[in-house]
Amino acid sequence: MPHTDRARDAGSARRRDRGLRRVKLTTVAIGVTAAAGSVALGAGYATALPGASSVGTPHPATAPPSRTSSDGSAPAAGGRTSPAPRSAPSTPLQPPTQAPAAAPTTQAPQPVHTTSGGS
After folding, report:
1. Nearest Cα to 14, choosing from 4, 6, 2?
2. pLDDT for 2-33, tens place per residue?
3. Is residue 54 part of a domain?
4. Alpha carbon distance 63, 57 (integer Å)
5. Does residue 89 have a pLDDT over 70?
6. Which domain holds residue 35?
7. Between the CA of residue 35 and those of 40, 47, 60, 95, what are the distances in Å?
8. In this structure, are residues 81 and 66 in contact, taking their beta carbons and an 8 Å threshold?
């Protein structure tokens, strides 16, 4: 007569292992979804904020001049054109002609000494 306890124990162990595997896969899926969601939200907020720029394409400080097509005509309907590719400035940055002025120094007021009646 075979031991029925061993058969039940083996079945219980398989069910436990399946449950643990299911929990592990669920945990990994939640982690991956949370990471992808935070990246998507971060990218969305970065482009939605005023003054924000997309990665790798700095916005010029002034509006770019309007461009014309290769035949010299005005831009197509809607007036939208792709921005010109940005390159390094033609002249290097120059140091300022005058050093910044030193901040005025003021002495902090001295605290008033008070004496209480306690001993």
Report:
1. 6
2. 556 676 788 899 999 999 999 999 999 999 99
3. no
4. 15
5. no
6. 20-48
7. 9, 19, 32, 44
8. yes
